[in-house]
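Researcher: Quick one. two chains, 415 residues in total.
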Amino acid sequence: MTLGIGAMLGIFLSVALVNNLVLAGFLGICPFLGVSRKIDMAFGMGCAVTFVMTISGIVTWLIVHVVLVPIGTALGDPEALFFLKYVAFIMVIASMVQLVEMYVRKFFPPLYTAFGVFLPLITTNCAILGACLLIDMKPEYQNLLSATIFAFGGGIGFMLAITLMAGVREHIRFSDVPECLRGPAITLLVAGILALAFMGFAGIGK
Amino acid sequence: MADIQTSNLQQFREGLLDNNPVLVQLLGMCPTLAVTNTLENALVMGAAATFVVVMSNLVTSLLRHQIKPHVRILIFTLTIATFVTIADMFLKARMFEVSRKLGPFVPLIIVNCMIICRAEVVAIKNGLWRSLADAFGIGLGFTMALSILGVVREVLGSGTLLNYPVTPASFEPHLWIIMVLPPGAFLTLGIVIGIVNYLRQRDRKGGAA
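Model:
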């Protein structure tokens, strides 16, 4: 259960930079293209995603290791209930988003107005479900601490990518883009170049 | 009866071409970018998504009088999650290699906005046949868009098509390795969408003149 500080930093850097969920893992492309018009909106979305991703990562890890595996073991096969995983995960994420929204509205009204419409949108953000599934698929995240760091790092990586993208797009507005490339096409081309830049991080960590 | 037939056909055509989920509506982008490094992956992903959208439209359309409006999103999501689980188990049992390559993107069909969008826009309001026609149109349109990307990226990036070498010996795929890596996906999709936009704008101008 003990994890050195170096290993923790390794997981964090690996998921936030080297294997960035958006630019190398293709997760959360919809908000990445849709909500990256302005820096402050992109940053708000990034914060909300980081928040929900960390909590969902922890809760889905607990669901697998505290609920599904022990009940399955009691039934004779630890993996007996794994067919329920996807249904359970999506239920957890949908209800976590709802819960977080209610909690934030009650106790942190300024934060709630800052997050605004982004919270409900996050339910269908595949980066969240994707991070939970990746944690579940990789054997090296089989303890709670590394799962938490992975989820948090993934959120930070998403925030970094979407904020960078918004910064670029704020400048693109003033340039003369060919008519057929306006909108999503040029955004995707920029994302390709950003992804190229992020490939330069390969080799950090492991 | 005749006009119902044509409208079903129109609904099908609409999803396949005019309202192609990936190239025009820009829905379901994550799998489009992630699994199109080879044509084989693209086809399997397209087939899985088509199966799920057809089944989800079928169930939603049959249940449309029972579903209460305020719980509909939850019902949609659970229906989709069920069929995705079935598709995932099938792939794991029959096509293990491909399923391993697709990784988390099979379960991620659950949050593919294309599928929930069809349930919300079409299946909840329309009868069985129309919903099915729509689902097949959207599913095949999705598969088609994925295959275009798959062909471009596999031929340029690895010099093969469905694992058979197709390029002349003088072509050196390692110079184009970027096409099978993540940046290649973004660049190819950006260019393909640009071409589609160009053709659509030309059509519109041609129609106006």
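Chain A touches chain B at residues 23-30, 33, 83, 86-87, 90-91, 94, 123-126, 129-130, 133-134, 137, 178-189, 191-193, 195-196, 199 (CB under 8 Å).
Researcher: Thanks, that's what I needed.
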